[in-house]
Amino acid sequence: MKRYIVTTLLTVLLGMGALMPQANAAEEDNKPAQGPQVVQRAPLYNLGIEGRVYVNMYVDAEGKVASAQILQSSGYPLLDAYMLAYFHAGNVTFAPALDAAGKPVPCNVRQMYSFSKGEEMKAAPAEAVKQVQPKTKKYPDVKTQTVVSAALDDTGKVQETKILVSSGNQEYDTAAAELVQKKWKFSPAHDAEGKAVASGTACVIYFGYLPDPPDAQTSKKEG
Q1: Backbone dihedral region of 118: left (phi > 0), alpha (psi from -120 to 50 degrees) or beta?
Q2: Which parts of the chain register pLDDT below 50?
Q3: Does the reported pTM lie above 0.70?
């Protein structure tokens, strides 16, 4: 498997080598008579990160993933961001759920995706060392998130941000980009020789909620 360092947003989205997800059986809220069935799924990719992500997808009556949220974080902002971008890009299509009369209906589907590092990677992607989130009490009536990509220099400093997946609210998206630019801190990425290099990464800013941490002992830092 070829080994690449995450240097641009394109690398973040397309990944560094094929990796198929391990998903548990789907769980639907208010289960329809017949649950949705996956009919198409693009492959996921190895980001050199090991973790599990629990995702809630709202599948519409046409079988399309209309929205997705992280229910339990992997502990890695890049992996969480990748999963949200993956679903919002329409990489998964379902045969729609059906009610008792055989009519297509929308529903929620919850799944866990497990990632492993696979081969040991010599190149090391940048990692978030300070992850500041908005205070949840400032957004009592919403539960949404914005995915932000960040271009980093060889010291890990954020040089530029871009909205990768919108919350649907321009004010929230602007606040998310500014928060990453001003308050998030990253370690620099390193190439295969151990030299610090410029790179790209991505992270999720949550408004009105925070996902469950990967471990009950994990603390949630708010700004």
Answers
A1: left
A2: 1-28, 216-221
A3: yes
